[in-house]
Amino acid sequence: MTTDTVSLDQLVAWLARFRELVSQQQGYLTELDSAIGDADHGSNMTRGMTAVMEKIGVSHDDGTQATLVDELFKSVGMTLVTSVGGASGPLYGTFFLRMGTTAGPVTTLDGAALSAALRAGLGGVVARGKAEAGDKTMFDAMAPALDALDASLATGGDCVTATAAAFSAAKAGRDATEPLVARKGRASYLGERSSGHLDPGATSTALLFEALADTLGQAPA
Amino acid sequence: MIGIVVVSHSPRLAEAAVELALEMVTGVPPAIAIAAGAGDGVIGTDATKVAAAIDKVSTPEGVIVLMDLGSAVLSAAMALEFIETDNPVRLSDAPFVEGIVAAVVLAAAGASLDEISREAHHAMDAKQGQLDLPVPVVASPDDAESAIAGSAIAGSVTAEETLVNPDGLHSRPAASIVKAVSLFDAKVTIADLTTGTGPVAANSLMGLMSLGSRTGDVIRISATGPQAAEAVERLRAMTVDGFGELR
Q1: N or C: which end of chain B has fewer CB within 10 A?
Q2: In chain B, what residues touch A91 (CB-CB under 8 Å)?
Q3: Looking at this predicted complex, what is its ipTM?
Q4: Which residue out of B9, B121, B122, B170 is catalytically annotated?
Q5: Domains delineated in chain B
Q6: Coil, strand or helix at B48
Q7: Nearest by CB to A90, which of B9, B42, B47?
Q8: Residue A211: is it exposed, middle or buried by C-beta count within 10 angstroms (0-12/13-18/19+)?
Q9: pLDDT tens by residue, B81-112
Q10: What is the pLDDT of residues B6-58, one digit of tens each?
């Protein structure tokens, strides 16, 4: 096994892949959101992640590109806060800001540090949205993903295996939101009528973990 | 005077709500900052805009933040992580339009952050009262006690007058009562003897509006405290004058 860490470049690649996935599935996310929300999740996330990649994705010769993980995630979080508009702005924004604070001024993350940062991000989402398990929110994809990540790392899994396990759990968590009655967000206004639809936030969160698994699963260059 | 921040998905909604509230202010209005829209014409909210708005109108007396819904609430909560001011900031759970009206009117009358926060929280009371829904008729627990005791306390001053202005105790006269009461060292209550509602604290905009008093109703103004007589006389005179609406 090679040294099992995630580099700054891989984190940027993760965000680029996330942008690609939300952009590809923009129509689908918006369709989900039109069923139980205000039909803007796809366009909001695409706009937000496009702004993020404009901010961080190009190589800056003038040295403005983040060289440390905390700088990178702070920049990502603030860009989402100012460009998304909908509730996913403060939610994903807080997620990345907390990830950055916990990761600290480092250039790589090992499995434990990645897990700690993601956990802090989840804690931020919970603090911001007051969501609990089963509320039909992004929490329902993210919390099981992190549990699976930790379980894999605890049994000797490397980052590739652990993030693949996290993606599987995120998908399962996303799918499990379908029968739920929403208790948070715009969908909660619909009460029982929110049942029978996947939650758009849980769906974009599954894409976040798909992007992470994709990125780390690629053979190192 | 406290500052007011209005957070909305829509700049037009925020501007119109503020305009409506300013209609009801007679003197100097409070500083009001709007944080609405997410830039480039996007309907939404932006926590950094909210933080900038809070910093802009912050005063040592504090800032109250009124929000429409959904991400506006999340963005306002997140803004507290970005603000630079150390002055107190309160996020209000008030309904948007009612809360803005209550906050603007009371801030102009010199009310404290606590008072405004409480009034904004009770901002639905007037509407519930008008629709005959159960409503707490007195906004302030302190004033409720003195209101009940007031009728029995020796030295309390009362006057009864008939409302002569065409629309009764709607928001503008109610606001002028709140403002007038704030000038006196007295606990003042008002009851509608015609409908049997109240008494409510006269420094409570929403309490007064919850009386639903109409033209022709007889109100009883009661006060205790060092300036009770002056306060009652002032309100009596305002009532007789139709709150300046008879012209």
Answers
A1: C
A2: 74
A3: 0.86
A4: B9
A5: 3-123 (3.40.50.510), 133-244 (3.30.1340.10)
A6: helix
A7: B47
A8: buried
A9: 999 999 999 999 999 999 999 999 889 878 88
A10: 999 999 999 999 999 998 887 789 999 999 998 778 889 999 999 999 999 99
